[in-house]
Amino acid sequence: MRLEKCWFCSSTVYPGHGIQFVRNDAKVFRFCRSKCHKNFKMKRNPRKVKWTKAYRRLHGKDMTQDSTFEFERKRNRPERYDRNLAENTLKAIKKIDKVREDRAAGHHTLRMKGKKAKKQREEAKELEQGITLVKAPSVLQEEPSLTLPKIKVKVSHQESQENRAMEE
Amino acid sequence: MGGKCPHRKVKKRRLSHKTARRTKFLVKGDDAVYEALKKPEEERRPLPVDEDLPGMGQYYCLHCDRYFPNVATRDEHFKTKRHKKRMKQMMGPAPHTQLDAELAAGMGMPDNGPKLMPM
């Protein structure tokens, strides 16, 4: 069973799924779903469409060079069946898949690293501007937790007495 | 698609859809044109005489995959914006292929196995 890749979005095409177009120069184009087929018919370039793997690779969104990419290949000369080899391969697949996932997650965190301060600033601004959506302005004035606390200032009694004396 | 049509008097519909009307199977794909352009000059065969094509198929634009009735119209075509745009596109990086799609999906280069005939 050969699992092909979609020409447009590079997702896996399982047998019985998608559609295949053979051009009159015998070039084969496989598509995973009608979305990809339609985009091909519209002559869109997968490198310029943001949701495709080709775009994400080209713009540094995904990992590009990794040793785990060397395992899955199109083999034009099939391997002779060997029970032990098949068993070991099935075991290895799980491990390699985990390694790849971890590395991809590491790549993602590294990519998102410098954006925390920017995100915080943007969110603080949004909160400041949109606080009226959460609380009505009148409530905001009344509720003490949302406004600055009132400070009590002590006024000395002696001064007032002196003032009265002056008035008399 | 559709270029300017100089004779049209109706203001709303001034574009001609002559090229769009060509059957989709007659138009060469971008990658086919790119490969044809990559070939060196010597390898290109002289254009075969075809009486069904405009100008017996002798005046051809390789970039745009179009035939013209005579040299003058072809040279005029070379000056158009559309042709220049197409030329720029063909000078750029190679068009997307199935191999690119597979590499983007996290696959390695295709494995052809050991050589059967030792050289």
UniProtKB/TrEMBL annotation, chain A:
SMART domains: TRASH (SM00746). The keyword Nucleus applies. Residues 6-44 form the TRASH domain. GO terms for biological process: ribosome biogenesis. Residues 106-119 have a biased composition (Basic residues). It is found in: Nucleus. Belongs to the eukaryotic ribosomal protein eL24 family. This is TRASH domain-containing protein. The lineage of its organism: Eukaryota, Viridiplantae, Streptophyta, Embryophyta, Tracheophyta.
From TrEMBL, chain B:
It comes from Eucalyptus globulus (Tasmanian blue gum). It is found in: Cytoplasm; Nucleus. Residues 61-83 form the C2H2-type domain. One of its GO terms (molecular function) is ribonucleoprotein complex binding. Keywords: Cytoplasm, Metal-binding, Nucleus, Ribosome biogenesis, Zinc, Zinc-finger. Its main location: cytoplasm. Transmembrane segments: none annotated. GO terms for biological process: ribosome biogenesis. SMART domains: ZnF_U1 (SM00451). Belongs to the ZNF593/BUD20 C2H2-type zinc-finger protein family. Residues 1-20 are annotated as: Disordered. InterPro entries: Matrin/U1-like-C_Znf_C2H2 (IPR003604), Znf_C2H2_jaz (IPR022755), Znf_C2H2_sf (IPR036236), Znf_C2H2_type (IPR013087). GO terms for cellular component: cytoplasm; nucleus. This is C2H2-type domain-containing protein. It comes from the Eukaryota. SUPFAM superfamilies: beta-beta-alpha zinc fingers. PANTHER family: EXPRESSED PROTEIN.
